[in-house]
Amino acid sequence: DTAVSQTPKYLVTQMGNDKSIKCEQNLGHDTMYWYKQDSKKFLKIMFSYNNKELIINETVPNRFSPKSPDKAHLNLHINSLELGDSAVYFCASSPSSGGVAEQFFGPGTRLTVL
Amino acid sequence: DAKTTQPPSMDCAEGRAANLPCNHSTISGNEYVYWYRQIHSQGPQYIIHGLKNNETNEMASLIITEDRKSSTLILPHATLRDTAVYYCIVRVSNNDMRFGAGTRLTVKP
Fold this sequence. Notes:
heterodimer, A: mainly beta, 7-stranded mixed β-sheet, 11 strands, B: mainly beta, 0% helix
């Protein structure tokens, strides 16, 4: 069983479009995250989210917004896509926010903006 | 937040122990040392974490020096599938994991 899944695996789109990436975890975790890994392979956290609190990395443009329909899902919406948004996006989850338990990562979504 | 320093790359012979060092000289008393790895094109995978004591699990051992300024991740019998980028992260909690450049470990036959 896949613990953290993401769809789609690949996403190719035109500049200016709006797109979403879906993430689901079946681990019963309370906290979910979105990370961006750019072409230089640096992995940076974008958001952490649980039922009560959204923590946003201050460097993330407001074109990016996480949306959580329920505890098992955290989708990433991106408006007005730009060339610099091309990257691999990883979703992750952990049992709690602010604890020391490990994070479980999804397989990633490779976004290419043309 | 404590910063970490890792060698950019290392090689290891298959079947031998891989010892990956990490320096974190500015670590504070309540910061944990985490290790993750990322195999090519996959999501990062948790390996182990510790605070003061050495830790061991089915994947690896973590040796933390007494002054906590450095640590070593040990893969006791490296296989080709252990080829990956290994990240050492020092954080108070799991809420804000910050991944550096890591060490690219290549296990050779």
